Amino acid sequence: MKHGLILFAHGARAASWAAPFERLRDATQARTPDAEVVLAFLELMTPSLPDTVAAMVARGIDQVTVVPVFLGQGGHLLRDLPALCDTIRATHPGLHLDVVGAIGEDAGVQRAMADYCVAAASN
User: Fold this and answer.
1) Is the pTM for the entire model greater than 0.85?
2) Among 34, 54, 70, 89, which is least packed, fewest CB within 10 Å?
3) What is the torsional sign of CA 101, 106, 112, 118?
4) Higher-scoring residue by pLDDT: 6, 122
């Protein structure tokens, strides 16, 4: 089984907004050489999640994990992402698609952000 990992972010009008997500993608790819790691966006930027999955499927990837690079479970993750995933599953019935929780709700990520905040307060 070929595995793909999609870092799914909101998107923005300013191209520079994507820079930290690109660095996260590159760092993740370096640590997961057996998976293809790519970015996809909900809106305002490309590629979209459906386009990204279609491209991965065309390259023979049959297992995809979506990591929402959002701080919390707002409307986009509660409504928009499940609807997108339903469409993707209907379009690619042989694909195994998993979606994990928002990155910002992970305890380790929360600790890292708290460490950053504490360090900022110490300056």
Assistant:
1) yes
2) 34
3) positive
4) 6
